[in-house]
Write a structure and sequence with these properties.
Elements (H helix, E strand, L loop, with lengths): L1 H27 L6 H14 L7 H11 L3 E10 L4 E8 L4 E7 L5 E6 L2
Antiparallel strand pairs: 1-2, 2-3, 3-4
Length: 115
């Protein structure tokens, strides 16, 4: 009898831990980058925005065509090694999508779930 209670108690702890982890994962969907990273991205965007042939608004429209939803307030420029890109995130209500939009052509060149 004691052994059954220990097994049941252990299973209850495991279920509670998994449920809590699920809540943490769902809650993390709306988190943003740390303030220092966000500030660094903003500085880079300000410094290179004139080099982009595509505006932020145009990049966001291209991203929304790929994944309709709400824009996540985090659009910024990046140098991905093969050229300047806008990183745009959209939230479709169930997942946040991260897209890379070529800053010269406006083409979505990368499209994946945000991690």
């Amino acid at each position: 009898m004691v052994r059954k209670r220990l097994v049941i108690a252990g299973a209850t702890v495991a279920v509670a831990t998994l449920a809590g982890g699920g809540i943490a994962l769902a809650g993390s969907r709306t988190t943003q980058d740390p303030p220092a990273e966000h500030a660094s991205e903003a500085r880079y965007t300000a410094a290179y925005q004139a080099d982009a042939g595509v505006t932020q608004a145009e990049a966001e429209r291209a991203a929304l065509q790929s994944h309709p939803g709400t824009l996540v307030d985090d659009t910024h420029l990046q140098d991905e090694g093969d050229g300047l890109r806008w990183e745009v995130k959209t939230d479709d209500g169930s997942r946040i999508w991260e897209m890379q939009v070529d800053a010269h052509t406006g083409q979505v060149v990368s499209n994946q779930p945000d991690d």
